[in-house]
Amino acid sequence: xxxxxxxxxxxxxxxxxxxxxxxxxxxxxxxxxxxxxxxxxxxxxxxxxxxxxxxxxxxxxxxxxxxxxxxxxxxxxxxxxxxxxxxxxxxxxxxxxxxxxxxxxxxxxxxxxxxxxxxxxxxxxxxxxxxxxxxxxxxxxxxxxxxxxxxxxxxxxxxxxxxxxxxxxxxxxxxxxxxxxxxxxxxxxxxxxxxxxxxxxxxxxxxxxxxxxxxxxxxxxxxxxxxxxxxxxxxxxxxxxxxxxxxxxxxxxxxxxxxxxxxxxxxxxxxxxxxxxxxxxxxxxxxxxxxxxxxxxxxxxxxxxxxxxxxxxxxxxxxxxxxxxxxxxxxxxxxxxx
Length: 338
Ligand code: P6P
Fold this sequence. Notes:
By secondary structure, this protein is α+β, with helices and mostly antiparallel strands. The protein contains seven helices and 17 strands.
């Protein structure tokens, strides 16, 4: 059989632009630059102990989490890769307290880039898959310069979103609003090659992903949902469930995009004033858009995540996303309780 023609990320983006005009030149540049940064991060991650990049830095991030050396390296790679290009007005990162405005020595662009440079970093030192998550907004036209408030747009305003998972393969998954495409890094060529497009999440599943050790802290609807899954065939669901929890959102969400499932990191009563553990702007919003573009659903239990109006850059949110029928059941249980 003739070898299937390899479609590079660049060719895919150009052809998408020709087809539906969803990827203006500056956005294509942004996506190619982010992909190149992910290649560099992948190289650093793959070196592990040999690269002297494991272990913790002597610092904490705005989330109050100890930063890993690779967290900081990945953050710097993304900033340096993007700031010169003229496509961005500013960036925001899980690893930085405030926004990073593109320095005046570079041309200013119209896009805002947000990212979690290395999600799941607690897994770095034990060689478990981690990843970079990114989300792209347009800067509001009506405001001169750029400030943090320009980032506070609901997830429905995203113009691109994606992640790169550093696992057995290095895989870039992205959407610009016309379905979800996946590119696998061809290390011999050093380029991302299209390996799947129009990814679809099955509406039903037998697999859930949650950190079960938090169960006693959950709200009633969450406990009800998981209890029913655990009751299996003899219970109200009439089928047995399997559980997966990698403690790396990128890896858990990638599995769901590939074979279905439901991922939950819900509010719990340990810190009731916190909506959840995960961050809205650069974790939940990009992942929710990808999941919806693949036919799934994403809620905070009460509302579609993409419709939430952010009030601060590092806002946290309760997350339930994946196979549509499971997310709808979770939403129903929360509505009944309300
Ligand atoms: P826990 C990683 O730190 C992260 O932000 C997500 O990637 C992951 O889903 C979650 O936290 C894991 O949290 O409490 O199970 O360690």
